[in-house]
Amino acid sequence: MKRKITLKQIAKELDVSISTVSKALSGSKEISEDTTQKIQAFAKLYNYRPNNIALSLKNRKTKTIGIIIPEIVHHFFSTVIRGIELVANKRGYNVIVGLSNESFTKEIINMEMLAGGSIDGFILSISKETLLKQDYHHFNATINQGMPIVLFDRVVNEVDCDKVIVDDFRGALKAVKKLLSTGCKNIALITTMDYVSVGRLRTQGYIEALEDAKINADANLILKIEDSLDAEGDLDVLENEIEKFFKNNKKIDGIFAVNELYAVTAMKVARKLGFKIPEDIQVIGFTDGVLSKHATPSLTTVSQHGQKMGEQAADLLIDRLELEEEESLDYIEETARNEYFKTVVIETELIERDSTK
Amino acid sequence: MKRKITLKQIAKELDVSISTVSKALSGSKEISEDTTQKIQAFAKLYNYRPNNIALSLKNRKTKTIGIIIPEIVHHFFSTVIRGIELVANKRGYNVIVGLSNESFTKEIINMEMLAGGSIDGFILSISKETLLKQDYHHFNATINQGMPIVLFDRVVNEVDCDKVIVDDFRGALKAVKKLLSTGCKNIALITTMDYVSVGRLRTQGYIEALEDAKINADANLILKIEDSLDAEGDLDVLENEIEKFFKNNKKIDGIFAVNELYAVTAMKVARKLGFKIPEDIQVIGFTDGVLSKHATPSLTTVSQHGQKMGEQAADLLIDRLELEEEESLDYIEETARNEYFKTVVIETELIERDSTK
DNA sequence: TGTCAACACGAAAACGTTTTCGCTGAGAAT
DNA sequence: ATTCTCAGCGAAAACGTTTTCGTGTTGACA
Predict the structure, then answer these.
(1) What is the pTM of this model?
(2) Is residue A56 part of a domain?
């Protein structure tokens, strides 16, 4: 097991200088064809590869993107990563992931770990705890240190940076309008607590769709679930909660749920209570994951196009990184900063399956 | 937006040498208390953080682990990553992921990208295409360059390194024995093509369980699915295939599927054909993912404990990395190499749900 | 024969650290 | 007064690159 070979070793072995080796390998015409040949052959023989770390140090950039997401065992976030990785690799970047596990402190620790020179920029989605605390100083701090950030999905106005979001409001609107158009009169909403912005926006979409149809939103038809429940264990609790909800609201004929877990669980409970889907009750979920596709009946959902979000986020970040090379950010007037950052909105898509008519 | 502050800048600002700053910050008692105070205060004020890249270059290690997996939008692999990340972070390491996308060349490209100094060691699961080609030179090459590898799940004898696997054989055995013990007489197997080792092992477990019960495996009861089908689109094709299979084998009363997608799809088709689960047909899948848990009826599965696999793999790798610091690998006799590497076997667990009696 | 350009190559700086060693000055010991 | 000791600090090397700026050796040309 030999250590990786370096320019210095090649130089010594061939009795030339390091500079010569470096130039020969990069095909500089400063070096004679003879020596170039010799050096390149030798390098190939010993399978020479330049040391990325040394290059990073020299160039002051790592060609690596840091991703921080709340959770990786999650279909949506995985698709986003896939998207990021796709364009990052295509553009010559690597991807390094940190998991905040929905925790404020782990988010900070991870960011500090990566911000210490390991990466050129961040792509991240804010943890629930951070959203709850509304403490975003670490984001602004790293931005001020000159490291660009792209926020996706769970974004927040307090941070000035590029953002990629899905139109949660219109997605919900579309979904509920669909339910209305297929004859639903009493549409229930199953949602999370309000502090996650996306949940709030979806709720607004639900309400607006109803109002457009001259229906007053009935508070009894809105079920807010404690977040702790979607985690792992307490599936039973979730089911009981929903069952109680159904029993208190016998006239429900449509359900819009802000994620697919709530949606399929609702279907499960509904069937257990003797309802037929979609005949008696129609269901639409948000987030087109593996559950939606393979549930029985398969679930009509609002797709967020996670992969596309990831691709967009990566392009946005890399564009900025490579733009900064030429123009320094200092030129930008403080007042122009706001317009300087883009927010890309990915259109949602209603994927119709068998849980709706 | 100021660039990150360095030792040099602090030194200049405080009119001391770089060495003094470095020592003061690390609390060396070589430096007087006065200067130490002053320097530390200044550093804190300007939020100094040592540059990881420079440290990596100096120490010749990056404190980063490279992961390469075939696919990230996949419950099992995500849980493995979560496990790796968990112990990696706990032990002061970062995690950088590459996706091979089941492609041989992308696997190689990714490995070369990372092997160029970016990481200290690999944790990876082999892509299908690589398994098909049976070309493992790139693994052995990087190992020979002194970079340790830990293989998980999809492993192969030809590569000499630490491995973490699940006992696929016994997992399958347990599953089929369970079906037998609850009265199944004609148990079908739905599996993939043979070249993925885990599929082969699971098939062997199925066969052995039958033989133990003095039943001859019936080739007609084994359905081999083209891999391309589990990807994204062709869910219909998969369903048709399974439906045809059922119609050709009307006496089937039990199904063992080598992954949860096949299992839930089988359930779906069975129900469509009028069978009741688990009364008429019992079903067990492999891989305890989100589908199994939320299918109706919920699916009995063999859990692979992905997270535990990840944790073990990370521990194995980091142990080796930190061991190599002291003893050089050169001391190891060539003959001792074989016993030098560990293979950790994670026990499977049969999680009983509603698709079995 | 002397001058100059072109060619082929090397020296050194730089990126940001840590660490070894050497240096300086002041007080203690003789 | 002279030597010794030690505290407190700085210089420099090293990690592996790339790149700028020399520098020496040719050959051609006047």
Answers:
(1) 0.92
(2) no
